[in-house]
Prior knowledge:
The chain has helices at residues 14-36, 54-74, 79-102; strands spanning 41-43, 49-51.
Amino acid sequence: MANEKLPEEDKVDALATLLFLVFILIIGYIFQGLWSGLFPFGINSIGEVSLESPIVLIILGSLALLSLVGGMIRAQYPREAVIIAAIIGLGVLLVLVYILLAMPTDPFQLL
């Protein structure tokens, strides 16, 4: 009984698991940075957290979306679910890009 092989559809793909883990870690890092001032956020002298590098935040969001969709494809989710996740993720990412890049910038900011 212990040496029985699992059916093909019951196997867990290691790469899919890794991609989902990368997605969770990136999103967790973004939330941790927002809470405690880790880069791409910063904390000033009175304890307020502010965004220092919107481009890095956009890159992190893009990597999170790519790892989520890649993990879904590798885990053989239904095509409709992958398309819906990609469309919603791209929508959220485009709104984030619009909001971040429409903010006025400080010409003396080093980052």
